[in-house]
Amino acid sequence: MAAQPKRGGVSLPERRPVSKPESNILARITSSPIVSRGKQAASDAAFVSRKLIRSTGKAAWIAGTTFLILVVPLIIEMDREQQFNELELQQASLLGAPPTAPASK
């Protein structure tokens, strides 16, 4: 049997010969030391920004959990004490006692 070409396949375009990097202006620019230093600087900036964002996130987590554990119960207790003082004043006024100013701490 003779080899027949396949039907329905995708044919690739023919390859052009690769020119020398010295003759191609784009290749000379991309291989220049200024471009490589710029790439290194961009890479360093991205690394530092990732580390900064990560450490900022950790600090925010620590501050948030500390706030929830220490400050929120204090706020709740202060509100509860204020409500208790108001209730005492209301009961005293209903019983006919002269209103007194709450003792300040």
UniProtKB/TrEMBL annotation:
Family annotation (Pfam families): Tom22
Segments passing through the bilayer: 59-76
Membrane keyword on record: yes
Membrane topology: Single-pass membrane protein
GO CC list: mitochondrial outer membrane
Stretch list, region Disordered: 1-23
Subcellular location: Mitochondrion outer membrane
BP GO terms, sorted: intracellular protein transport
Keywords for this protein: Membrane, Mitochondrion, Mitochondrion outer membrane, Protein transport, Receptor, Translocation, Transmembrane, Transmembrane helix, Transport
PANTHER family membership: MITOCHONDRIAL IMPORT RECEPTOR SUBUNIT TOM9-2
Similarity comment text for this entry: Belongs to the Tom22 family.
Annotated protein name in UniProt: Mitochondrial import receptor subunit TOM9-2
